[in-house]
Amino acid sequence: MTQTYTLVINGEARQVQATADTPLIYILRNQLGLKGTRYGCGLEQCGCCTILIDGEPAYACTRAVDSAEGREIRTVEGLSGVGSDAGSVDHPLQQAFLAEQAGQCGYCLSGVLMSAKALLDQNPSPSRAEIVTALDGHLCRCGSHTRIIRAVERAAAALSQEQTS
Amino acid sequence: MSAAQPTGTTLPASLAANPRLDRWIKFMPDETARIATGKVEMGQGIVTAIAQIAAEELNLPLERVAILSGDTDEGPDEVYTTSSLSVANSGAAVRTVCAEARMLLTERAALRLNCNPAEISVEDGRFLQNGEAVDLTYWTVASEIDWSREATGKAAVKAVPDYSIVGQSVPRRDLPAKLSGAPVYVHDLNPADGLGDLLHARTLRQPGRVAELVSLDEAAISKAARGTIQFVRERNFVAFLSPDEAVAEAAGAAAVQHAVWNGARDIHPDQAEAVSLKALPSIERRIGAAPNEVAAGRLVEATFTRPYVAHASLAPSCALARFEDGHLTVWSHGQGMHPLRKNLADVLGLPLDVISARHMDGPGCYGHNGADDAALDAALIAVRMPGHTIRLQWRREEEFGYEPVGPAMLVQLAVRLDENNRPRDWTTEIWSPTHVQRPGSGSGYLLASEAISEPLAPPVVQDPPEARGGGGTRNAVPLYDVPSHRILHHLIEEAPVRTSALRTLGALPNVFAIEGLIDQIAISAGEDPVDYRLSILSDERACRVIEAAAEASGWSERGPGGHGRGLGLGFARYKNMAAYAAIAVALTVDEEVRLDHIWIACDAGLVVNPDGVRNQLEGGALQGASWTLKEQVRMQGQGVTTLDWESYPILKFSEVPEVETVLIDAPDEPSLGVGECSVGPTAAAIGNAVAHALGVRLYDMPLSRDRIIAALLAED
Fold first, then answer.
1. Dihedrals φ, ψ of B16, to 5°?
2. In angstroms, rounded to a whole number, what is the distance separating the alpha carbons of residues A87 and B12?
3. Which domains does chain A have, with CATH numbers?
4. B593 neighbors B708 (Cβ within 8 angstroms)
5. CATH architecture, domain B409-435+470-715
6. Cβ contact (<8 Å) for A143 and B393?
7. Nearest to A40 among B188, B314, B654 (CB)
8. Cβ–Cβ of B654/A113 closer than 8 Å?
9. Residues of chain B contacting A33 with CB distance shorter than 8 Å
10. Which residues of B touch A88 (CB under 8 A)?
């Protein structure tokens, strides 16, 4: 049965119509036009659809809409701040990924960015091993892994500089 | 500016096939030059490299060059984006077109100013006469030129020393949008793009090309989908449509359980193994030297195998299609829009000029995956439902189950050595299914075209010709100095599942085999594998990359090995005519292989974008490592059984080593594509490093935990 849910996405309340177990990815992409959350497998195996719910990485491909109501949802469009802006690359993580040219086809990047954000929010100066652990649930088929790891290290350095200056 | 080089009148092949200038270049009202290319972005950075070449020849800043890629209405037909040829082919055409455009524009400006063209220069698209600004630009003059004229190739192109944009590490122009979460993929096309409300579609696949659908429980599918499903069915093609994507997806998943087929495939699991190839009917060929009847010299033999492997694109294939007022528009992430349009026209019985095929980015495809098939799926539905925009997406299981896989290969080498342990006679004997079943070639069909009709004639069994690098025979001839060489090619007539082009085609298994045997010969002769290679290699560019990889890896400190740590090297010149790559790999083996470090050395001639080249080389090495260590498509019964990332694991972040790249500077040599050259040598370097670490060689990919344990037990 279709119901109305109020979701807080990138700091903004959005009303959506869905059945209780509709995966969030379809709501984000098809009802709200937030296409940055990418569909990869629908099986919680590739990480392409990773979003943050209350700051923790979550798979949008299987996460039911009713379990996300009232929680803080963040997607790649809201990486930089409040609101959803699919054109922005202002966040230090995005800047670092550009500086390292970290990506080829780019399909994995939205999810990788969200996991990296969750990591840096909790651990501003992670070791390389901690970065690898945080990203290990993400698949990259193009072989951009080493650049992605370097980009997260670069973003961590930039963020800590921001903090101290 | 130093002396410019005339291009002569021989047009680059892409340009000869599409000679009209307006197929390539258009001066836009927003004061950009729009360059059209038939090659498409797959994450390899081609759009950026083409823009660099155009900006360089037009003397424009990069911001004033826009790229239209893969558009059948306006762009050139450059067939498929394959074989690491885009910079060499499309790049050459764009360079010639832009040089000619600059010449025509300059001549026109001179005419307007009533002066000698030599007095005219251009900055940022604005003309100067003897260094003084005048009121003429590319854009004001362009409208006075008939761009439908054919290219002559007579304009001088810039000399390499004058380059200021080509050769620079320009950032990829597609990456910011991808990092921002913008709707850049074909999967993301939107009602807001003027397409109206989308109907989401999923399909039921035919388990084998002659399987007949006996029954389909539509009620059960609708029930499982928990929403209203519209069914589209023609013979053995079935699609499920809903405005709600979750409903369409659920219907697609449920349908597999509620369909009964006659004549479906029935595959034995052993057919997934490369050794099964030897028992299959094949087309036999010999290429090169006559069979060696003189059995002189020591004979060294070894057999190497690679199983069926997957493209395993990160997203399932997707396409959109809309049929309106008799015109079909298809949006696809396939590798060639002109061939796709032709193939769609053939299947649908429509004239070419009522079909537009437009490329949009997709997940990296690394060859012929399901993208084209998805485009036909969407088009089949769209022509039956005029006025609706159909968004067709494969399910993950469908992508793994029905993409054309990279063929298994068995490579048997027999080498006669002279008294100094140098190869005197070499036989590379190959068993492989075809590496190309692209639709339209006669050797393959778009998947659904087999479902909608009477069973089609079996595809013609053929492989790409050796002049284009070959398929199963790709890189089967060692670049080393070998007095006589032959290839014995067993082209398998029918594999248990569809096979087609996957990054490097046969080069990965062939280089793995050749470089493995070279390593083995050197070791058994008590020689250092690098010194041994250099002693039988006359090609200086080849020697340079091997020396560079050896030096970067600290090869001279290598030691005897055998204690679980290994350093190995692999080398090839891709297709024996493209980029040179040597790879060194350091790794540790206990029961599994752990990669510690990869060093890449590459000579790709004139490099358009050094960072772009590094990115491709690194990616090729890591993907090659993944195939070598981890991947095998398994099958049983109706088809492929490795249908998700757990049963088909690929290299993970925690398994990736440090990667370093050395580019050999060779700006005076023609540009050579780099998308594939690092793959085979990486596989070989891993194989050789494992042999160094264990003192035992593994001949069968993937070099898995089970195989390592078995090899060690056999040794004890």
1. -60, -35
2. 38
3. 3-78 (3.10.20.30), 92-164 (1.10.150.120)
4. yes
5. 2-Layer Sandwich (3.30)
6. no
7. B314
8. no
9. 183, 190, 192
10. 180
Cβ of A103 within 8 Å of Cβ of B192? The answer is no
Domains B197-263+311-402 and B409-435+470-715 agree in fold: yes
Chain A contact set for B361 (CB, 8 A): 105-106
Q: Is ipTM strictly over 0.95? A: yes
Distance from CA of A94 to the nearest CA of B (A): 6
Structural tokens at position B124: 């940022």
The residues spanned by each domain of chain B are 5-168, 197-263+311-402, 409-435+470-715
Topology of B5-168 in CATH? Aldehyde Oxidoreductase; domain 4 (3.30.365)
* B396-415 pLDDT per residue, tens: 999 999 999 999 999 999 99
Contacts of residue B95, defined as CB under 8 A and 6 or more positions apart, other chains included, come to B7, B12, B53, B54, B56, B57, B157
Q: Is the pLDDT of residue B3 over 50?
A: no
> How far apart (Å, rounded) are the C-alpha atoms in residues B223 and B467?
55
Distance between CA atoms of residues B667 and B682, nearest Å: 25
Please name the residue that has the structure tokens 């790229």.
B67
* Helix-, strand-, coil-residue percentages of chain A, each rounded to 5: 40, 15, 45
Chain A residues within an 8 Å CB radius of B392: none
CATH fold of B197-263+311-402: Aldehyde Oxidoreductase; domain 4 (3.30.365)
> What is the per-residue pLDDT across B306-321, written as a single tens digit (0 to 9) for each?
999 999 999 999 999 9
